[in-house]
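Late entry, evening session. Most of the bench is empty. Finally got around to the prediction I had been postponing all week. Sequence below, unchanged from the version circulated by S.P.
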Amino acid sequence: LMATIFGGIHCMAWFFTFPTYLEQVLWRISAAAITCTPWLGVLTSLFLIVPNSPYAVGFSLYALYVIFYVVGRAILLVLMFTTLHNLPPDAYKTVSWISLVP
């Protein structure tokens, strides 16, 4: 559940602007991967409970979901820092915090 919430938070940036189209596509794929793979893992574990189910297939699918999740998290981590190279000019303005205090 927590992994899905974490992925959903990253999906909120679905329509944000990114420096390049490739970064936007990578962000969307990675956010969808970390949102959906925990539930795919749950469905796979339910499949493994069924009698006479092929365990090798279930465990290999589960391992694949874990790999997708880890790679998705790694891509999001890298993209968070690489998108800092192209900030809008307003990000560099100094905020006068004292003027906001009543």
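Two things to note before I forget:
The radius of gyration is 19 Å.
The first helix runs from residue 2 to 11.
Will write this up properly tomorrow.
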